[in-house]
Fold this protein.
Amino acid sequence: MTFELLTKTKTKLQDVVVLSQKNRQPDDNPGAKLSVEMSLSNDMLAFFDGSLKSFLFTKNGAVASAKGSQAPLDGIPPVSDTPNLTPIGAKVGALHWEQEMTGYELVIDLGLGGKRSNIEIADCTLSDWRLIPKEGGSFLARFNIESEDVSEAYFGKLAKLKSREIEITLRPPEVGQVDIEDKPAPVARKPARDAHAAGDAFAEAHGRKRPAIQ
């Protein structure tokens, strides 16, 4: 599974840092590093590792019983089927996750109605993850979004958004699929020669006559 945010997700833009590559030409745009924080359902831990959710969360856990967890409200669906922290989840604090994800498209929706008003940054890298489990079935995800090419106009908009809540989507790179028609055709094997024909060839090669079969 690949981490993705295909629907607009509330995010806090904690910091904006200008990145200047050593080999950048005078007319090239600089890069940017955006530090963000968002709250996600613990179901999304599967994007990182299939066992993380059960490692950090449980149902009717001892930690929840000791704190007197709130009963679910009628008509309101629960955030997760395992909303309570395990003993490890309650003590782990921020779980550092060293995984780099490349090729993402970041879209920041400025709420002005229209695609052209959004900030769209391609070829982003997600890194420096901090996963913080929370009682109730969610976790805070803190990470960096970096791009080597951010326009001057976008930098002006990003500066105004620093320390504010924004809505973003993160689309992973598309994985190309090979069509069945494009697959190389299997190499046909030559049919095995008839046993009689093989015997005739051997006899001819050695100057002998093949005895007749009765």
The two ends are 68 Å apart (CA to CA). The first strand starts at residue 5 and ends at 19.
